[in-house]
Design a protein that fits this description.
This protein has 551 residues and is an alpha/beta fold. The protein has helices spanning 41-46, 48-54, 89-101, 120-128, 189-203, 250-263, 297-301, 306-321, 339-342, 363-379, 408-412, 458-463, 468-481, and strands at residues 21-25, 58-61, 105-110, 140-141, 164-166, 172-174, 209-212, 270-273, 293-294, 328-330, 383-387, 491-492, 499-504, 508-513, 525-530, 544-550. An 8-stranded parallel beta sheet has the order 9-8-7-3-2-1-11-10. Strands 12-13-14-16-15 form a 5-stranded antiparallel beta sheet. It has a 3-stranded antiparallel beta sheet with strand order 4-6-5, with no helix packed on it. Helix 5 (189-203) runs parallel beside helix 6 (250-263).
Length: 551
């Protein structure tokens, strides 16, 4: 396939993010450049051409900062450096420059809700004791009960267990996630100043933006009231208004300050929110003086069913249009079961977080549906995200040995939830056996790869014209070159029951058949791209999508 010529991003439109396709790089599992079994900056640099040829506009790199890795790098001990296992700060700067030369922008993860318990600030807080300025950077409180031996409230942590851990001097500190991830106190000006400095540090090095981890959880009700819940729903406010630690109004003042910093830099620097909020609340994060875009978790979690999908698509576009923001669309990420596996189940949506294992999946059906969903996603107006490996058709690895599991959910849940490791297995690039080109022959990847993954390697995909990789490349090429797909114009058309049919621009239609029977294609149209073969009479089979051009 001919790949369109790429321009250096210095010359790109500053509104590039409104229609961008961004590729998520889970760096530990992308490519190992030094043979230690862990992905790194060197490995990523060696594969930039692959990403440029795929046709994406930017890469988002999961945390690469120094970290004890209690939660895959989301427990940061130094926000201004790169973990030695991944490389050096100098190598990171080279990566940013080389990505720009390849026409790729670079987005980093920023983790502002918490630090590692090994961060100098937290170590200083432990040493300084109760009432000290050092402790005011975090959320320390006295316990309840006559001797303070009970936690300050009844909150539950996202990875299981209470949100409080007691220190040796008797106080308790808050952690909405693992004990190794103490929450920062965003009412403290020192915290705000520090993170504004961190943003400038990376913007000065050419980074094009940040994905904000737990953007909706940074501000807490200072009274820390009880929730009165016996169980905890990960990251969600559960419909509760005035929730004491999710989606509080105070986050918006923080983000207005961050937006002002981004606007000081040329080239369209951007912020992307990870915000699990109630329906109708996401637009508040994307006002013109706050963040640019946000992940669309409603779309990711939606079952592959026409009525529900249309509701989510309509709500996403309509709600965000009130603040002039584009929607984004995503099928998988590093926290959810890969969609090839989800779509092979009876229920195709995301169930209770990290509880999907054990439900059988029809891999052939899931792959067929995933191909159709890819064309649906990439035809919608706004931005889109691709999680590494979905362009290869990778399924979830649900049979990792218990001894290999590293997600803190496994331990914190008392070995009842296997966690997210199954979607984080290192990528297969080439060859017939592990490590499948992830590292040099003989390398042992940090998570074991299934031995039957040889059919999913990049080389295997490239050799098969009907592969998932070729489908993604073709869709991304059309998305880049077809004028209709570069507009924000979108309108529905009536189609047969169980289908979705919409038009972009002047004459490009997308149709997906989610019914149980073949349906005729709209008259007067010729197929541009289909997710699978049409029936002999030219009709669209079940679980298949097509891009069509009006004749």
């Amino acid at each position: 396939m001919d790949i369109p010529e790429r321009r250096n991003v210095v010359d790109a439109n500053e509104s590039w993010w409104r229609n961008a396709v961004i590729y998520q790089v889970y760096i530990r599992s992308f490519a190992d450049g030094n043979g230690d079994g862990v992905g790194d900056v060197t490995g990523l640099r060696s594969r930039l051409r692959y990403l440029a040829d795929l046709g994406v506009d930017a890469i988002w790199i999961n945390p690469w900062y120094p970290s004890p890795l209690a939660d895959g790098g989301y427990d940061v001990s130094d926000f201004r450096d790169v973990h030695p296992v991944y490389g050096t700060l100098g190598e990171a700067e080279q990566l940013i420059a080389e990505a720009h030369e390849a026409g790729l922008r670079v987005i980093l993860d920023i983790v502002p809700n918490h630090t590692s318990d090994q961060h100098p600030w937290f170590q200083q807080a432990l040493a300084a004791g109760p009432g000290s300025p050092e402790r005011e950077r975090y959320v320390f409180r006295e316990g309840r009960g006559p001797d303070g031996s009970l936690p300050p409230n009844d909150w539950h942590a996202a990875f299981g267990g209470p949100t409080w851990t007691r220190t040796e001097d008797g106080q308790w500190y808050l952690h909405l996630f693992a004990p190794a991830q103490p929450d920062l106190n965003w009412d403290n000006p020192a915290v705000r100043d520090e993170f504004e400095s961190i943003l400038r540090f990376w913007f000065d090095r050419g980074v094009d933006g940040f994905r904000i981890d737990v953007a909706h959880g940074m501000v807490k009700d200072p009274a820390l009231p009880d929730l009165g819940m016996s169980e905890f729903s990960v990251l969600a406010a559960e419909g509760q208004e005035d929730h004491p630690h999710w989606d509080r109004e105070g986050v918006h003042d923080i983000f207005r300050g961050w937006r002002a910093i981004a606007d000081d830099y040329p080239g369209g620097r951007v912020f992307v929110a990870e915000a699990h909020v109630r329906p109708g609340r996401l637009a508040a994060y994307l006002r013109k003086d706050e963040l640019h875009t946000a992940f669309n978790f409603d779309f990711l979690k939606c079952p592959l069913e026409s009525t529900e999908l249309r509701k989510v698509i309509d709500r996403s576009i309509t709600d965000l249009a009130t603040v002039g923001a584009p929607a984004t669309w995503v099928l998988s990420n590093h926290d959810e079961t890969r969609h090839v596996t989800r779509y092979g189940r009876v229920y195709t949506g995301v169930t209770t977080p990290m509880r999907d294992q054990g439900h059988p999946s029809d891999h052939v059906l899931g792959t067929r549906r995933a191909r159709a969903a890819a064309l649906l996603t990439l035809a919608l107006p706004g931005g889109a995200y691709i999680y590494q490996g979905e362009e290869l058709g990778l399924p979830e690895v649900e049979d990792l040995p218990e001894t290999a599991l590293q997600d803190p959910t496994w331990e914190r849940s008392g070995h009842t939830l296997r966690g997210r490791d199954g979607c984080r297995v290192p990528l297969p690039w080439s060859g017939d056996a592990p490590p499948f080109g992830f590292g040099e022959p003989g390398t042992t990847p940090w998570l074991p790869q299934p031995r039957d993954w040889k059919s999913y390697t990049v080389d295997s995909n490239q050799a098969d014209p009907a592969s998932m990789l070729h489908l993604y490349r073709a869709a991304l090429r059309l998305r880049r070159t077809n004028a209709a797909l570069r507009t924000e114009d979108f309108r529905w058309h009536d189609g047969p029951d169980g289908t979705l049919l919409f038009e972009r621009g002047d004459g490009l239609l997308c149709m997906i058949n989610l019914s149980y029977r073949p349906v005729p294609l709209p008259g007067g149209c010729s197929p541009l791209l289909v997710s699978g073969p049409l029936d002999g009479d030219g009709s669209l089979p079940p679980d298949t999508a097509a891009w069509l051009q009006r004749c």
